[in-house]
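Case 297 in the screening queue. Each case pairs one protein sequence with one candidate compound; here the compound is nicotinamide-adenine-dinucleotide. For every case the pipeline is the same: read the inputs, emit a complex structure as tokens, and attach any notable structural observations.

Predict complex for case 297.
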Amino acid sequence: MGCARPIDGKAAAAALRERVAEASREFSRKALRKPGLHVVLVGDDPASAVYVGAKEKALHKAGMEGAVHRLPADTSEADLLGLVGKLNADPAVDGILVQLPLPAHLDEAKVLDTIDPAKDVDGFHVVNAGKLAVGKEALVPCTPAGCIRLLKEERGDLSGLHAVVIGRSNIVGKPMAQLLLAENATVTIAHSRTRNLPEIARTADILVAAVGRPEMVKGDWVKEGATVIDVGINRLPPPEEGAKGKLVGDVAYGEAAEKAAAITPVPGGVGPMTIAMLLANTLTAAHAREGLEPPKL
Ligand code: NAD
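Case 297 output:
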């Protein structure tokens, strides 16, 4: 095992959740209602069910109100859009999250763009993506927003640092690059068609891996002293029948830790920050909808 400092996302998330719970109580005193977060789950994808369950528990713990709307896998687009419309119109609802992936017969982009951008706590609506791109106040996707918090706690000012983001999804890679740009980092976005990826990765002061390929980033891809943020969550095949496969990131942790100054472990790094940021976004949306100054979290 190398000498990199593990970045404790679990502790950072717990601290943020405590601040959110306090600010949520304060909001309830002022607005005479709790912040409201509603989650929509279509079908029975087991991973999604686990994520949604965790979100449901977290929202109540944070002093928020809300529910999970569990719909059957064969729900029609009209019915799903109808529920989103109802939540859009409900004044007690501040945040709406439709859990992805949706069953194949449903048009994800259409569903996401039906959500009121002011309630889009996942930050996936084109209006929020556009605002982020032009540097306006926006609801920002939770995972990259969590990564930026961890990075700023670790490195302080990111100005002028070279950040390499591997992955260009709308959920992680692209918004991550935008957030790094907003912090004045020099940003390179790499993806599946990038040539000489190890060479490019080696130039990074900040290396963010959001690919979905177990332990793809090797130790010799990492510059000495770099900060490594591993977004990947991959389950390896189980060693024997009936057992559970190990959870690993997109970075070969042991090797990368030999070179990096700091690195997020999997699990316990980026993952816990995602739900904490979802709660923070809900609180931000609730304040904006009530015309209140958002709390500093
Ligand atoms: P995605 O599949 O939408 O995007 C993957 C990206 O990786 C693509 O842009 C693709 O171009 C790039 N890529 C694929 N193969 C590559 C290769 N060989 N070399 C370089 N780039 C390559 O995935 P996503 O939704 O962005 O998620 C990425 C990972 O992050 C997944 O493991 C996912 O489970 C994880 N994730 C974690 C959290 C969290 O809360 N920690 C949240 C979202 C996603």
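Case 297 observations:
- The first strand starts at residue 5 and ends at 6.
- Residues 20 and 280 are 6 Å apart (CA to CA).
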